[in-house]
């Protein structure tokens, strides 16, 4: 993986750039000491690191605007950063860039249950958005696994999903408005507390633009009334094909569970070792969750269990209590952590049409043998969003490269069957060079022209999302 | 001249000009276009500032490309009739989640609505409050830009963050960024049944509060509207959908929670379906003379906003967040309303009014500049429905 060479001129102007930034921010708002900037050298994709030129931590939209105005004037690249939980390297700096962290923008600005909205500053964590309305019996629906730590700014940047988006959608479906600072420092308001924006759907293209179009400082989000209750059922099957057929039956029967999660045998074993959730040792495990009143849940469960029985499950266990529900979910929610105990791993994020599930899993198994690297599969089966975890040993020469090649083959497979490279993690630097497998030159050019319109100097997170050769002329022209 | 006559005198009634049968033909037409084009599907949604240009009709670029009920996705060419798609989905017990509005009654049109037209205007019905807008169900597009380049974005999977989301950008862009050739949607299972609870005689503020209260319950209301001027007096409607037993349960609980608003009547499935189709299509205002405006605002401000206008013909949908209203011809509603949170769109008016008043709410300068930059990028020659969104 390559990053552009840092601009020698900017590196030589380091002191002046820092002085300009310090002039518009409080004393603790600028970090430039190398011991401290190191904390910002990477995000959750830890294989790649580079300390930035400086880090700024503004406390207001105005301060963000001042910072961007200066960086625009001096042509300094800016790397927006939420909480740094990106698995795709979305917040990876370059040595000549300023990291703009929104971690100090954490206020709740408005809650209105009649309009069913909350307006927050964008550094607030996903879980604490729900926390702010919990006493009112409301919640914010998108629930990425990192929700304890990840910031709304990053959720908007990556258009984050979660386990429950089968019913509630992803970030873009729950975002109504933003205050955003453009690279030149100007501040724009888009959307608000109403349900559709006037004019072109700029909000739609900003969400998921990986910090390349502007820096969102405030967001208006939809909140929903909590359901009366929820209950999961755990099902074990003898093969991926059978589990896939059961998922298709549930969907075609007109049931709409809030979540359908899938784990394969390697993943089940690792999670069971770690959490003792009582998972059966089988080829495929499903966790299906439905919501509603107890009676409504009973009715849906009866239908789902009836469909499952037709596929001869090796286990079919409906939760009978809060504690049992928590236990069923515990294994799944610990999957990444549990995997981290037994091996280094790379987490992929492709999406496929649900009907291609058995074929894709079989091919992943074949590739696993070919590469000699283990793979554990955990994913959102209802919407086809796969998270294969490729296991490797980072201390062994060449294993990271081997793992990346294996990962690239899996993602190309997703594209081949009509899916995509990333369902909810984003492209970042990780999948940047695979974009040409999904899009042709014209498709990519259309996306680049959108960035041209928002950030003509190509200073915001410039080396992400698109293959470097594709963006080279634009980035160089900026310098 | 009546409202209907004025509308049908608009250029849409001209003989159709260019009618590509394939995406490649469409690309060739756009690459070779000598001047502005006026892009149409079924011609049932003549919304926007009047466009001067050679007619380009997409009706022959028609047909469902693939339907995968197990994956909840459908892909169709832009000129495919909406009815054809809905009929196919119904065979598998599914539907388009966003309940697209049919504009024919309101705009006095008779053509066949196409799916490309739905996307071009982001047509979203009462279920928008629960299942999202057209743009939320749209998961992939193919389109041809102003230079004849074929571009794809998104795909046919529900979760996709690969590159920029031009899918959303295309929805509601009124053909001004590119000409859609193919669209992909997420579908949803159609519910076993539906029921509507009806409150009567409430004034606007109280009715909208009832809608807000209902939408703040856990009973999954899928539509919430208020018709202040129904024949027998004001009516307030709340729809529940799902499995029969669940609908019965939620209906009881919701009715109990609304006890403070007076008697609650029940509209059973068949009548409920008709009722929501009429609200979706704004039938109560279709025959009202004058201009038709559409306001998108916060429900908490809706009633106070309407109070500024007096007792004019109006209809609230989306729990109060969407207001349809009729005004005497040619009046500038925005000037009468003053500032508010949201925006107003002039949906139905004669060509002279739509040329004089901005059809879409004027935007702050930086946003207008962004939109201008985007249009210049996708359509540098300015040939795609030029000026339609001004």
Radius of gyration of chain B: 21 Å
Fold-level CATH name of the largest domain in chain B? Uridine Diphospho-n-acetylenolpyruvylglucosamine Reductase, domain 3
Number of strands of chain B: 17
CATH topology of the largest domain in chain A: Uridine Diphospho-n-acetylenolpyruvylglucosamine Reductase, domain 3
Alpha plus pi helix count of chain A? 18
Strand order of the largest sheet of chain A: 15-12-14-13-17-18-16
The largest beta-sheet of chain B arranges its strands as 3-4-8-6-7
Measured between the Cα atoms of the first and last residue of chain B, the distance is 26 Å
Low-confidence stretches of chain A: none
Q: Compute the CA-based radius of gyration of chain A.
A: 23 Å
Helices of chain B, by number, come to 16
The CATH class assignment of the largest domain in chain A is Alpha Beta
Q: Give the fraction of residues assigned to helices of chain A.
A: 25-40%
User: Beta-sheet strand percentage of chain A?
Assistant: 15-25%
Structural class call of chain B reads alpha+beta
Mean pLDDT of chain A: 95
The biggest beta sheet of chain A is recorded as:
7 strands, antiparallel
- Tell me what the CATH architecture of the largest domain in chain A is: 2-Layer Sandwich
Provide an overview of this structure.
The complex is a heterodimer of chains A (479) and B (390). With 479 residues, chain A is α+β, with helices and mostly antiparallel strands. Chain A has 18 helices and 18 strands. Chain A folds into 3 domains: 1-226 and 441-479, Uridine Diphospho-n-acetylenolpyruvylglucosamine Reductase, domain 3 (2-Layer Sandwich), CATH 3.30.465.10; 230-335, 2-Layer Sandwich (Alpha-Beta Plaits); 343-432, Alpha-Beta Plaits (2-Layer Sandwich), CATH 3.30.70. Helices cover 38% and strands 19% of the residues of chain A. In chain A, the strands form 4 sheets. In chain A, strands 15-12-14-13-17-18-16 form a 7-stranded antiparallel beta sheet, with helices on both faces. Chain A has a 5-stranded antiparallel beta sheet with strand order 5-6-10-8-9. In chain A, helix 14 (357-371) packs antiparallel against helix 15. The radius of gyration of chain A is 23 Å and the shape is globular. The relative contact order of chain A is 0.11. Chain B has 390 residues and is α+β, with helices and mostly antiparallel strands. Chain B has helices spanning 3-8, 23-32, 82-91, 104-107, 115-120, 128-131, 134-137, 166-170, 204-215, 244-257, 269-280, 283-286, 299-307, 333-337, 351-356, 365-378, and strands at 37-40, 54-57, 64-68, 73-77, 94-95, 138-144, 150-154, 179-186, 188-189, 193-200, 221-227, 235-242, 264-267, 291-297, 314-317, 322-327, 342-348. In chain B, the strands form 5 sheets. Chain B has a 5-stranded antiparallel beta sheet. A 4-stranded antiparallel beta sheet of chain B has the order 11-12-10-13, with helices on both faces. The radius of gyration of chain B is 21 Å and the shape is globular. At the A-B interface, strand 9, helix 8, helix 9, helix 11 and helix 17 of A face strand 7, helix 8, strand 9, helix 9 and helix 10 of B.
